Structures are given as C-alpha cells and as structure tokens.
Amino acid sequence: MTRVLEIRPTKTYALLVPENFEEDVEGDVASYWMAGDPLLLQLSSRARVDGAQIGAAQRLNERMQHPGHSQFVPASIAIDGCPDVAAAMARDGDGARWLFVYAVWPSLTVFATLVHPDHDILTPSWGLDAISSLRLA
Fold this sequence. Notes:
The protein is mainly beta. Helix content is 11%, strand content 50%.
C-alpha cells in the first residue's frame, strides 16, 4: 500500500497524494503525477471575496462549451464535506480521457482536471483518491 501525504497547493485547501508524487506549479495551476504513470492531475482554485458564489453545475456547463472536447458524460464524484460538486468526463481529438470536477464551498472553488491518454478515467486511481480527499484548509 502506498503511503499518502497531505499537501496544500494554496493556503485555502488541502488534499492527499502518494508520498512519491511529482509536482509542477505554473501560476495558479498545480500539476501532480507519478513517475512511470501517464495519469495527470491539475488543480486551480479561486477564493470568493464578495458576491454570490457560482455553483458547480453552472461552472461545469460553461467549461463544456470550450472547444476541443466531445462526448461529455456526467460523472459522480463524492468529496466529503464539499456542499456542491459537479463532474463530467470527455475525450479529446487524440482519444485521451478527461475528467473535469468543480468542488465549490461558499468561500472557495477548486477546479480539478484528471487526464489519462488511453484508459477509463473513472478506473480507481491515486488521482481519483486525491480529488475525493479535497478539503478546506
């Protein structure tokens, strides 16, 4: 069994990843992967300072309007303690499988993207476990 570590990509949220993870941060996007594993997890977040929070389903619907992906299929992802989660799977022109997840709390939105070049994106993986472990810090 692989040991996991809690990491905080920002001061606002945390998640669990395998202890031997690789990381790259560019601007407000954090990327995580495991050596020898083609699965890639990317995360970004936005804190709500004022105004009404936009819900996960609305954010996901807007994301699905972007070109480059087709065959969006709703997906069920559970994130304990997150009051509003929406997810969908898609394929790109090269056949890669994508999972888009919005996790929305009153004060924060986390957007998670999981991609694999050729297998079912909902196959149990460290990436799905990491998304399911998202929590406010």
